[in-house]
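Long-time lurker. I teach an intro course on protein structure, and each term I like to show students one example going from raw sequence to a predicted 3D structure in token notation. This year I'd like something fresh instead of my usual example. Would anyone be willing to generate the tokens for the chain below so I can use it in lecture? Attribution to the forum is fine with me.
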Amino acid sequence: MEGNTNWSWSVSAVVIRDGKVLLARHTYGGGKGKLIIPGGYLEAGETPQEAVVREYLEETGVKVAPRQIIGIRFNAHDWYVAFAADYVSGEARSDGNENSEVLWIPVDEALLREDVPDLTKKLIACALERGKGLSCIPYEGSNRNGPYSLYGIDSDKTETEEV
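-- Reply from a regular --
Happy to contribute to a lecture. Here you go:
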């Protein structure tokens, strides 16, 4: 759906399961040959949450559920939102296009590897701060232009609660 892609809006997610993080070896651009967290651009009519679920499934064969926003990067030209996400199902595999391999790597090892870029390491560290990201807070709205999502510091949760 290249004609429906918004090249200014992108998403990614860090998925940690059993002490391992899911990373994909990128095949093009500045990240070529590097192990990065999967992600990509939004398609027309897609929310960031829907995009990250779609991108993970397309690129890795793994279904995820976005939980919290752990990072936002924006400038005058684009924005990028990173989620912490939970593993739902699926077996990790390469898409044979955007990545050459998809691996579950122990978190401690990923943070030390030279083939893992600094941004990926920073986002993994953010995901490890479980419960300290911006959580999706349900609210009732009457505007017909939705769906909307409010991500913020949820005052109904305490610091020690699991998210």
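Some talking points for your students: The chain has three helices and nine strands. The CA atoms of residues 5 and 43 lie 4 Å apart.
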